[in-house]
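I'd like us to work through together how a protein chain folds, taking it slowly. We need material for that, and I hope you will provide a protein of your own picking. Go ahead whenever you are ready, and we will take it from there:
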Amino acid sequence: MTPKCDCRAGKLNAALDVDETLIQAWVSGQLSGASYEYLHSVYQQDARLPHQQRTLFKLEGLANTFIWLKLRPFVRDFLDSIRAKYVLWLVTNGERYIPTVLT
């Protein structure tokens, strides 16, 4: 896919790397017991917040697995500050598994 400038709207293109820049992601099978317990306790606390304030998400994956997604600090503020002037393109060099679940 070739990005095109939305020049009529006066917007530029911004390509943002998802991996470790906007989010951190872990597949359930990649976590040790202690890491899983920590993420699960944070998830339980985070789940009480309104959706737009949450920073940790648990998504159903493929083959009976799930993915933990953690938004990086201030990522929402950053995206809100640039969305009026840029067309955002998200790119990843990560495993195909994670983008497949996100789409």
